[in-house]
TrEMBL record:
Pfam families: 2-oxoacid_dh (PF00198), Biotin_lipoyl (PF00364), E3_binding (PF02817). One of its GO terms (cellular component) is cytoplasm. InterPro entries: 2-oxoA_DH_lipoyl-BS, 2-oxoacid_DH_actylTfrase, 2-oxoacid_DH_E2_comp, Biotin_lipoyl, CAT-like_dom_sf, E3-bd_dom_sf, PSBD, Single_hybrid_motif. Residues 85-132 are annotated as: Disordered. SUPFAM superfamilies: CoA-dependent acyltransferases, Peripheral subunit-binding domain of 2-oxo acid dehydrogenase complex, Single hybrid motif. Its cofactor is (R)-lipoate. Its EC number is 2.3.1.-. This is Dihydrolipoamide acetyltransferase component of pyruvate dehydrogenase complex. Residues 137-174 form the Peripheral subunit-binding (PSBD) domain. Residues 6-81 form the Lipoyl-binding domain. The keyword Acyltransferase applies.
Length: 419
């Protein structure tokens, strides 16, 4: 990128052990004058897409990475040269930077990043994007996808309702083009190479590490979930604002099971040769997004009411799909619930979310014949599974946990005697 004398702003600490980020889009160009705390770029870490504000003002003289390029923590991101007036009545510098937020004078704490004179800076189009789309709320993922394929977002935004381009619009436009050609250097049969980046790369590394380090085992059982469905329907009728669904109810049962079998709310400290049992349950749940599979974490889940738990699940799922989750919301889990039933499958043997020690799996909910008190009936049936680290417990504990959860899915009233 263009160079020049000035003050370098280096990519700040991203937290949670993250060491680099990929530039999704630049909000400024060389020659622009920026104010203190103005967002200059959007970057994607292995956890989330976040905005980066600059802690001092001036004229931009260099951008140190192209869109799609990687920048390590502590490496130069943008260079800004001082100007005579940065912002009327405004400071020339601010406190420490927290990625995704602005900074308070003297490091008093984070505030949302702001643009010049308090207004949000319009996003500049990436390579191949027209100028007309810039003020519109188009997600960083869509902008990046368009940039990678040289798609004119300005022209496309004029053809979609409301002018807001979504991923399906970009994919439809790309599908209308000629079929993708094989990458150079292939074996003649045609190859398409997709770089492992962001969330996909982080997930690949995590599952590979899990497979290398964790001796996992699985157990499963079919359960009659008819009464749980009835509880869900009754709660929806009595308190529709609570938004309590089956995932929240299964999570509540899972939390009760972990209180009974705390061996599964644990991790292995391999360096010290110790099993670490955790008092707080930080419940992760698998969520499929456009960026790949992520696992948001509900902290202190065991202390939440069922309604509050349902609310956190909805909130985190929405943020995950929008790509706005902070890195801290995607790390630190102690046990995960994986609802693979949403993909229309009955069972799975998932990979444990390292360094956790267990995962509860939930298959699809279907009507099946079931024997009830000696009579054949049609019931709502699902399959539950537990995948566990065999270092932290044996099959007796894992089987006991799974049976406990299954019994309370079949007879939710049992929980009333334990709360």
């Amino acid at each position: 990128m263009t160079g020049g004398a000035g003050r370098e702003f280096r990519l700040p600490d991203l937290g949670e052990g993250l060491t680099e980020a990929e530039v999704l889009t630049w909000r400024v160009a060389v020659g622009d004058v920026v104010a203190v705390d103005e967002v200059v770029a959007e970057v994607e870490t292995a956890k989330a897409a976040v905005e980066v504000p600059v802690p001092f003002g001036g004229r931009v003289v260099a951008l140190h990475a192209a869109v799609g390029g990687r920048v390590g923590v502590g490496e130069p991101l943008v260079t800004v040269a001082a100007t005579e007036t940065v912002e009327e009545g405004g400071p020339s510098t601010s406190g420490p930077v927290l990625v995704g937020y602005g900074t308070a004078p003297g490091g008093e704490g984070p505030r949302r990043g702001r643009a010049r004179r308090g207004a949000r800076a319009p996003a500049r189009a990436p390579a191949g994007g027209g100028a007309g789309w810039a003020p519109r709320a188009i997600s960083p993922l869509v902008r990046r996808l368009a940039a990678e394929h040289g798609l004119d977002l300005g022209a496309l935004s004029d053809r979609v309702p409301g002018g807001v381009v979504r991923r399906r619009d970009v994919e439809a436009a790309l599908a209308a083009r000629e079929p993708a050609r094989a990458e150079p250097g292939g074996d003649g049969d045609g190859e398409v190479r997709v770089p492992l980046r962001g969330v996909r790369r982080a997930m690949a590394e995590r599952v590979a590490r899990s497979r290398r380090e964790i001796p996992d085992a699985s157990a499963w059982v079919d359960v009659d979930a008819t009464e749980l469905v009835a509880v869900r329907d009754a709660l929806r009728a009595a308190a529709p604002e609570s938004g309590i669904g089956l995932l929240a109810l299964v999570a509540r049962v899972c939390l009760a099971g972990l209180a009974r079998y705390p061996e599964l709310n644990a991790r292995v400290d391999t360096e010290r040769g110790e099993l670490v049992r955790l008092r707080e349950v930080r419940l992760g749940f698998a969520a499929q997004t456009e960026r790949g599979l992520v696992v948001p974490v509900v902290r202190d889940a065991g202390r939440l009411t069922t309604a509050a738990l349902a609310g956190r699940l909805r909130e985190l799922t929405g943020a995950a799909r929008e790509g706005t989750l902070a890195p801290a919301a995607l790390t630190g889990g102690t046990f995960t619930v994986n609802n693979y039933g949403v993909f229309g499958v009955d069972g799975s043997t998932p990979i444990i979310n390292h360094p956790e020690a267990g995962m509860l799996g939930v298959g699809r909910l279907v009507r099946r014949p079931w024997v009830v008190e000696g009579e054949l009936a049609v019931r709502w049936v699902t399959q539950l599974s537990v995948t566990f680290d065999h270092r932290v417990c044996d099959g007796g504990v894992a089987g006991g946990f799974l049976r406990y959860v299954a019994d309370r899915v079949e007879r939710p009233a049992l929980l009333l005697a334990e709360v």
